[in-house]
UniProtKB/TrEMBL annotation:
Signal peptide: none annotated. Mg(2+) binds at T20. Pathway: Metabolic intermediate biosynthesis; chorismate biosynthesis; chorismate from D-erythrose 4-phosphate and phosphoenolpyruvate: step 5/7. Binds 1 Mg(2+) ion per subunit. ATP binds at A16, S17, G18, K19, T20, T21, R124. Coiled coil: none annotated. The gene is aroK. Keywords: Amino-acid biosynthesis, Aromatic amino acid biosynthesis, ATP-binding, Cytoplasm, Kinase, Magnesium, Metal-binding, Nucleotide-binding, Transferase. It is found in: Cytoplasm. InterPro entries: P-loop_NTPase (IPR027417), Shikimate/glucono_kinase (IPR031322), Shikimate_kinase/TSH1 (IPR000623), Shikimate_kinase_CS (IPR023000). This is Shikimate kinase.
Length: 177
């Protein structure tokens, strides 16, 4: 089901909200390339996010992430799963606004369950010194207004098949406008 609109489709939301899972499925259905910004970071820099953050700090990672987003945004017709903090920099929010943006909402308790089941600290390093549940709550409180401001549509927490169908219906409706 290809779309005539060749703008990039960006998936934003907190860690473990399902951006990569949905992104792969959506890209397949739309016959578009899929890009995961976290994977692109590892490929470009030859290290994990945790390695860079541990050595240079979160600000250095955010700058590197912004460069990868800018590079990705220079190509059209992709489905892009972003990192959870991509919305923190104004320049990133501007780039996201040039595409179509879905915010994957998730219950903090479900996020904690998913992260506990697959911590993957190399790709999802701790953001604060807080415990996991407290960190999720604090991070969502900071970022949710930014996610909502960037999003063309919010996808409530649902099974991936339902999210996929919701996203496809939204894209079809946008194309008619």
């Amino acid at each position: 089901m290809p779309l005539a609109d060749d703008r990039n489709i960006y998936l934003i939301g907190p860690r473990a909200s399902g951006k990569t899972t949905l992104g792969k499925r959506l890209a397949e259905r739309l016959e578009r390339p899929f890009t995961d910004l976290d994977a692109a970071f590892c490929e470009k820099y030859g290290e994990t996010i945790a390695d860079m953050v541990g050595r240079d700090g979160w600000d250095a990672f955010r700058k590197a992430e912004a460069a990868i987003l800018a590079e990705t945004a220079g190509q059209t017709g992709q489905v892009v799963a972003t990192g959870g903090g991509v919305v923190l920099l104004p320049e990133n929010r501007d780039l996201l606004g040039k595409g179509l943006v879905f915010y994957l909402q998730a219950d903090p308790e479900r996020l904690a369950e998913r992260l506990m089941a697959d911590l993957n600290e190399e790709q999802r390093p701790k953001l604060t010194q807080l415990g996991l549940r407290e960190e999720i709550t604090a991070t969502l409180a900071e970022r949710e207004p930014l996610y909502l401001a960037c999003a063309h549509a919010s996808l409530p927490e649902r099974p991936v098949d339902e999210l996929l169908e919701f996203a496809l219906r939204a894209l079809t409706a946008w194309e008619r406008e």
